[in-house]
Design a protein that fits this description.
This protein is about 40% helix and about 20% strand. By secondary structure, it is α/β, with parallel strands linked by helices. The strands form 3 sheets. Strands 9-10-11-8-12-13-7-14 form an 8-stranded mixed beta sheet, sandwiched between helices. A 7-stranded mixed beta sheet has the order 15-16-17-18-19-21-20, sandwiched between helices. Helix 2 packs antiparallel against helix 11 (about 335-345), helix 22 packs across helix 27 and helix 25 (about 645-655) packs across helix 27 (about 675-690). The longest helix has 23 residues, at about 555-575.
Length: about 700
């Protein structure tokens, strides 16, 4: 007969660090405790907070979390799930009354330029202290005698009915002649990953065929794979998976599966919310038997947004899909004090307002900037604000909660009706750099924390004046699902614009994973595209688009130049680095950008960008448009043409004119790879700038 897991406990020890450490040593004496600390401690197993995510899936009898060098909110959330039932979590902290004013190491992670760590608020920690007191967490001063903790070890649980139902549902899907996708949702510690592994093991034992487990990274699949191995001790190891006769279990990356590089009879997706939605849709189209499993209230804070948004995709593509929620903990008792503390402290269980509370008429809406001291004190308001952000975005984490409360350059705008939150926008101050710093940012010699729009427009669009202007960037915007479709998002954006204008900002902008719908939304708000990035957004899988709405005369000048350069660059980007972009997105981008400008000669900004590329300070993708304008006159002049080596000439033709990929270009030129191709291109551009460039460009190269 197995023993049920027991509640875990938390102990807070406050005071000077050395005294806290000594008290904690007494508290965990005789236990194999893990200490989360950046300090070296002889005879003690330690792990820096930055590596706490490596603990996910493991178990410990006791864990000591040292917050004296900074309260890493992500690490705190990750570590709490490591303590097994009956175990102890010890939190070391300064005296509670002083703690919110300290924590400078962690505040440095939040302090965007030009704010020092001291400018970061202490609202998050002040609220944490209140939560600890409200939940009656035992507090001991460092000089208080503390007896050693006696862990009552529990034998492994035989599982829960929820877990058994999940295994049965996976088996039913695998065997069904008319399969429909299965979605498993669970909080941490409910055994969903184990259910994936146990179901896979049973199918392999039956000779089922090929089962593939996938996850956003290999480490995220280890719990499922470990349970499969334990259930099949006679299986043969095979890479990360195993084989038993003709049946086998493997791990594969989600993009390889979606591309058809790995066949599978059944696909098990763990932590699906951390995989871009377009990639999940491709898996859905390719594999009729697929299980999507994810954490709902985990430290990542991504599962609820996934559950709502991906459900719409499933409804559209595979009506009749099934969902199961695992509610009973496997590793500790229901009502666990440590889990309750983490949920409340990090707002992992925050929910948006009820639909009925926010579906009133448009005229009843109040929109405005919220004082963050008020937000931190009003728990009901904070829970609705953060709950709505989590619901609307895949990538909302506990660190976002701390940034929301304490970020020194952040403003929060809330739309309310009947006292409830119908919409929220987070807005950051950007720009205002002094001239020398702005020049260094443009040249690629400096990068400061934050200021995405200002720095990107300088470094990637070549707009040297951008960092000096004062802007506002909409970081997040969310409207309650029950309040959408009636112009409320536009009203919220307009409130942001009006506030920025009153504060003498030059522009308002945003950056987002581009989709036709989002592009249309921002157009209706009076914004226009000024840049397209190359990196794929984690949630949408699409490149990031930047949009601006100018406010001042200087902002309008910047906007006009940014729009012109964007329209020139867009066809080049779509022809080469973004050639695989979804045609619907490409069509929307081209339509939004408007007609391409008439051909023109290279101007001073173009020469400056080409010079920066030759010096290694620009990526090739961002100088393709001026490069096209450079090549024609250069190749038409036989003398200048002769200044280039044969390899340089061929590199320009293959990579720029014909838009061949780097591997193909390197192979045709007999070069080792991308780096060598870029070296030839930079050398060619250096030669052409020296021969054709304006005086400023030639002087810059000479330096």
């Amino acid at each position: 007969m197995t023993t049920r897991p027991r509640h875990r406990q938390i102990q807070l020890i406050t005071g000077e660090r050395d005294a806290c450490v000594a008290a904690a040593r007494r508290r965990v004496a005789g236990l194999a405790a893990l200490w989360i600390t950046d300090q070296t401690m002889e005879g003690t197993e330690t792990l820096p907070a930055a590596r706490a995510h490596a603990l996910l899936g493991g178990e410990r009898d006791a864990l000591v979390f040292d917050a004296h060098a900074g309260f890493d909110v992500e690490a705190f959330g990750a570590c709490a799930g490591v303590v097994r039932g009956g175990g102890l979590f010890v939190l070391l902290a300064p005296q509670c009354e002083h703690w919110p004013a300290l924590d400078l190491e962690e505040k440095a992670r939040i302090a965007d330029y030009p704010h020092p760590p001291e400018a970061v608020g202490g609202r998050f920690l002040a609220r944490l202290v209140r939560v600890l007191a409200d939940m009656r967490v035992p507090v001991a001063r460092a000089d208080t005698p503390l007896p050693a903790w006696a862990v009552s070890p529990a034998a492994p649980s035989a599982g829960t009915p929820d877990q058994g139902a999940a295994v049965a549902a996976i088996l039913d899907l695998a065997r069904s002649p008319a399969p429909r996708p299965l979605v498993l949702l669970a909080d941490r510690g409910r055994g969903k990953s184990a259910a994936l592994g146990l179901a896979a093991a049973q199918l392999i034992a039956e000779g089922y065929g090929h089962v593939v487990i996938t996850a956003p990274r290999p480490a995220a699949a280890q719990t499922a794979l470990a349970h499969a191995r334990s259930a099949l001790p006679g299986a043969t190891p095979r890479g990360r998976g195993l084989a038993l006769g003709a049946a086998r279990l493997d791990f594969a990356a989600p993009d390889a599966l979606a591309a058809g590089e790995v066949p599978a009879d059944l696909v098990l997706v763990d932590e699906a919310a951390a995989i871009p939605a377009p990639l999940l849709e491709r898996l859905l189209r390719r594999f009729p038997r697929v299980v999507f499993s994810t954490t709902v209230h985990g430290y990542e804070g991504t599962g609820r947004g996934f559950a709502v948004r991906f459900a719409r995709v499933l409804d559209r593509r595979t009506p009749g899909w099934r969902q199961l929620t695992l509610q009973t903990p496997v590793r500790w008792d229901a009502g666990d004090p440590l889990e309750a503390l983490v949920f409340r402290a990090l707002l992992l269980d925050a929910e948006p307002a009820l639909d009925a509370a926010v579906s009133g008429p448009m005229g009843a809406m109040e929109v405005g900037r919220v004082d963050r001291d008020e937000l931190a004190r009003d728990e009901a308001l904070l829970r609705e604000v953060f709950g709505l952000l989590v619901l609307a975005h895949y990538r909302t984490s506990p660190m976002d909660l701390r940034q929301l409360l304490d970020g020194p350059n952040l403003a929060v705008f809330v739309m309310r009706t009947q006292g409830h939150v119908a919409g929220v926008a987070l807005v950051a101050e950007e720009g205002g750099f002094p001239p020398e710093l702005a020049r260094q940012v443009w040249a690629g010699r400096r990068r400061v924390r934050g200021h995405l729009l200002a720095q990107s427009l300088a470094q990637h669009a070549g707009l040297v004046d951008a960092p000096g202007l004062r802007g506002r960037r909409v970081l997040r915007i969310a409207v309650h699902p029950a309040a959408q479709g009636r112009g409320r998002g536009r009203r919220l954006v307009q409130a942001v614009v009006e506030d920025a204008a009153r504060r003498a900002a030059d522009y308002v902008g945003s950056s987002f994973g581009v989709t036709p719908g989002l592009l249309h939304f921002w157009q209706r708000c009076g914004f226009r595209g000024v840049r397209l990035g190359l990196a794929r957004d984690a949630a949408s899988g699409a490149p990031s688009a930047m949009v601006l709405r100018p406010l001042s005369a200087a902002g309008k000048t910047l906007f006009a130049e940014a729009r012109r350069r964007h329209a020139e660059a867009l066809p080049c980007l779509l022809a080469d680095p973004l050639r695989g972009l979804d045609p619907a997105i490409a069509d929307a981008l081209l339509a939004e950008a408007g007609p391409a400008p008439a051909p023109r000669a290279l101007d001073a900004t173009d020469w400056a960008e080409l010079t920066a590329f030759a010096a290694g300070a620009r990526d090739l993708a961002y100088v393709l448009a001026p490069l096209h304008r450079l090549i024609a006159p250069a190749f038409a002049d036989r003398h200048i043409h002769s200044l280039l080596t044969p390899v340089q000439r061929d590199a320009l033709v293959l990579k720029v004119v014909k838009a061949r990929g780097f591997p193909e270009t390197a192979a045709q030129l007999g070069l080792a790879g991308r780096r060598q191709v870029l070296a030839e291109l930079r050398g060619a551009v250096r030669t052409l700038v020296n021969a054709l460039g304006d005086a400023t460009a030639r002087a810059t190269l000479a330096c």
